[in-house]
Amino acid sequence: MSRFIRLAAGLAITVSFGFQGYAQITGGQHAFEYLRMSNSPHVSALGGYVPASPDKDVTFTLQNPALLNPGYHNQLALNYNLYYAGIGIANLQYAYHVAPLNTDFGFGVQYYNYGSFQNTDVQGNNLGDIRAADYSINLSASRRYLERWRYGATLKWAQSILGDRSAMAVLADVGVVYEDTANLWTIGVVAKNMGVMLKKYNPETQSEPMPFDLQIGVSKQLRNLPLRLFIVGHHLYEWNVRYNNPADKVNNSLLPTADDTATNKKYIADKLFRHLNFGVELILGKRITVSAAYNHIRRSELGAQDAKGLAGFSFGAGVNLNKLQVHYARSYMTSAGAYNELGLSFQLNKFFAIGKKTEAWGWDKTY
Questions:
Q1: Where would you tag: which of 77, 270, 291, 325 has the fewest CB atoms within 10 A of its CB?
Q2: Domain boundaries in the chain?
Q3: Phi and psi (nearest 5°) for 85?
Q4: For residue 32, is it left (φ>0), alpha (ψ between -120 and 50) or beta?
Q5: What is the DSSP string of 71-134?
Q6: Per-residue pLDDT for the chain (367 aa), expressed as one digit of tens each?
Q7: CA 51 to chain CA centroid, nearest Å
Q8: What is residue 209's DSSP assignment?
Q9: To which H or E segment does residue 160 belong?
Q10: CA-CA distance, 111 to 91, in Å (whole number)?
Q11: How far apart are CA 172 and CA 25, in angstroms?
């Protein structure tokens, strides 16, 4: 455990110095922001951050490549997100354990379809329709180190097409996981979306920064209760990620007051909790899980000031049918309402027993 803490602290300090220019996380300041989004309903139900979990869910590979393990072998996940404004989001993730190399490999695709839009000139003349879409392809690899450690990396190729403008980038995630099965602890640290743009939207401008993140997560399953608790620290490379919105300040006096100056308040508790995500999972036998989470930064930035409602909360459920897992999530990103996600995970070796010719590949094996 102490070795993991030293490693996590060292990675956090190193990355913090290397990415000081990426300090602010306000929307619109980075390219390829879609790479921050959840890639499955199971992830969404836990608040959008899962760097540490003992669950056998192949979609967690994109959250932390070190979570990729032999338990994901031959698992294929297909997920669809009914996002706001009719935006369609599809995700695919697959994993395979190669026993001769003692290595786990993963492959995934993310696709975001924003639909078509009317293209007009400055006079308002219709020039036809244009489309907008983002997608990425990821390749992952993970290996065990000693008894309780795993380390892994993911390489991503990402492309964004917004009408007549497009951009491309290459990025990488690097992660480490420590798992104590005796005491039911899992701890993970991951540095995400480190990369460079290969093609800019506008060749005449500087490259936009990537949506980098540094996360440390802990999951603990209670020994005498069917509960698993999650806490995740995200955007750990910068202490102050609070956005001071001038529209939130209300002053009915003709004279300025001390509250008009944002620097007069330190907001220490708010700054701390904007880095934290809390989740809980109720495990009902071997078949059913019910999840819920609270994301404070979402509630603070996307909830209406006078009517936050359930903004920042997310809920979900999963059913394990042996050959098939079904996951559903409902996430309240804003006060305006929620969006729904549905995901299916197939255990391909249980659906398709190809035969003895595949024994060398390990197709029919379970871990």
A1: 270
A2: 2-118+130-245
A3: 60, 30
A4: left
A5: GGTTEEEEEEEE-GGG-EEEEEEEEEEEGGGTEEEEEEEEEEEEEEEEEE-TT--EEEEEEEEE
A6: 555 445 444 544 444 444 444 444 555 678 999 999 999 999 999 999 999 999 999 999 999 999 999 999 999 999 999 898 889 999 999 999 999 899 999 999 999 999 888 888 888 888 888 899 999 999 999 999 999 999 999 999 999 998 888 999 999 999 999 999 999 999 999 999 999 999 999 888 888 899 999 999 999 999 989 999 999 999 999 888 887 666 655 444 444 555 544 456 778 898 899 999 999 999 998 899 999 999 999 998 888 878 888 999 999 999 999 889 999 999 998 888 899 999 999 999 888 877 666 666 788 888 8
A7: 9
A8: P
A9: strand 149-162
A10: 6
A11: 19
DSSP 8-state symbol, 21: G
Contact predicate 228/222, CB 8 Å: yes
Residue 33: closest CA among 136, 125, 109: 136
Structure tokens at 277: 């995500």
DSSP state of 362: T
**Tokens 């995901």 appear where?**
343
* Amino acid at the residue 85: A
Six token digits for residue 153? 């990396």
DSSP 3-state percent helix, strand, coil across the chain (nearest 5): 20, 45, 35
DSSP track, 287-334: TEEEEEEEEHHHHHHHS-SS--TTTTEEEEEEEE-SSEEEEEEEEEEE
The angle at the Cα of 277, spanning 275 to 278, to the nearest 5 degrees, equals: 145
- Pick left, alpha or beta for residue 143 (phi over 0 → left; psi -120 to 50 → alpha; otherwise beta): beta
Enumerate residues 6+ apart whose C-beta is below 8 A from 360.
Answer: none
Span between the terminal Cα atoms of the chain, in Å? 25
Burial of 50 (0-12, 13-18, 19+ CB in 10 A): buried
User: How far is it, in rounded angstroms, from Cα 294 to Cα 312?
Assistant: 6
Q: Pick the closest to residue 46 from 308, 317, 337, 325 (CA basis).
A: 317
Of residues 44, 51, 22, 67, the one with CA closest to residue 212:
22
